[in-house]
Design a protein that fits this description.
Helices cover 72% and strands 0% of the residues. The chain is mainly α.
């Protein structure tokens, strides 16, 4: 789902525009929202204020440049240690870098991620997304690294005070971790009923079905999400991503991603460069290498440091 698709912290890659964005150049925040990451990096590189450094970290995060995301995120948090958003984004960067590191380095990074998530929640207890991310850490991490399902359930109780749907989401992931799949499915359905954004919950249920190998149910859940009125445009991005991962209705997946790109409602959590990359991947699967190359080039034109698109382009040229 979205572009945070590694299992650890994977589905929390549901990114939002935080208070820090309002302190920085609105032109730069628009570049991030529209997925013009290379332009954003160029505009931010010479700046040294905390807000700009955090945005720079987020741009690198989007392009999967974890070292840079951590470096600039650390600088932002050190300049403004009372800003909950900076700690949240730094925690995410630590988590993704940990997923790509050797076990020894990953352990230290994971602990840093835990501390940063917890600090973000301490600074802004009402930030639902920070609590959801912290709950994901508690669900996935072993006890020796500060994880624990009881801790995750506590976060579900806190989150439910603000958003009952997100509280059920946490409980669904806890049940899944315990291999209580029927309970997890029931919690996802409860999340759909209670959610402020039911299309997103349908798509996360689709992801749950895909991981269980229930591909017909996955495709049905995607269609349920798409059938809802008044959904966010990014639902089309997530639907296309899910169909791609499930290898179902590939032409339909392309149409979803193209609809998102033409929506005029692009968001940072579903960057345009990744949509082009996914269309390229779908084109490759369907044997359309020329079209795929054009999509990879479009991706790199927006995010020149996005290594997956560069590798994919080299592979088919």
């Amino acid at each position: 789902m979205k572009f945070f698709c590694v299992k650890i912290f994977a589905l929390f890659l549901l990114l939002f525009v935080f208070a820090a964005a309002s302190l920085a150049d609105p032109v730069v925040t628009e570049l991030l929202s529209s997925g013009h990451m290379s332009e954003a990096v160029s505009a931010l590189t010479s700046r040294q204020d905390a807000a700009s450094l955090s945005l720079l970290s987020r741009a690198y995060y989007a392009m999967e440049c974890w070292d840079e995301a951590v470096r600039y995120g650390e600088r932002a948090a050190s300049l403004d240690p009372a800003n909950a958003s900076y700690h949240l984004w730094l925690a995410r960067a630590y988590g993704r870098k940990a997923a790509d590191s050797n076990p020894f380095a990953a352990a230290g990074l994971a602990r840093k991620a835990k501390n940063a998530f917890e600090r973000s929640v301490q600074l802004d207890p009402a930030n639902v997304q920070a609590r959801v991310d912290l709950a994901q850490y508690y669900t996935e991490a072993p006890a020796v690294m500060g994880g624990g399902l009881d801790k995750a359930r506590q976060q579900a109780d806190e989150v439910a005070r603000y958003d009952r749907g997100m509280g059920h989401e946490i409980l669904a992931r806890v049940a899944e971790k315990e291999k209580q799949y029927a309970e997890a499915e029931a919690q996802w359905h409860a999340a759909i009923q209670e959610s402020k954004n039911p299309a997103d919950m349908w798509l996360q249920l689709a992801d749950f079905y895909r991981e269980r190998g229930r591909l017909d149910a996955m495709q049905s859940a995607v269609q349920s999400a798409l059938a809802l009125p008044h959904k966010r445009a990014e639902s089309y991005f997530d639907a296309g991503s899910e169909l791609y991962l499930g290898n179902r209705d590939l032409p339909g997946a392309v149409q979803c991603l193209q609809k998102y790109l033409s929506s005029g409602e692009l968001v940072e959590s579903a960057p345009a460069f990744r949509a082009h990359y996914l269309i390229g991947q779908l084109d490759e699967k369907m044997g359309r290498n020329g079209a795929a190359a054009a999509e990879y080039q479009a991706s790199l034109a927006l995010a020149s440091d996005f290594a997956p698109a560069r590798k994919a382009l080299s592979r088919i040229q």
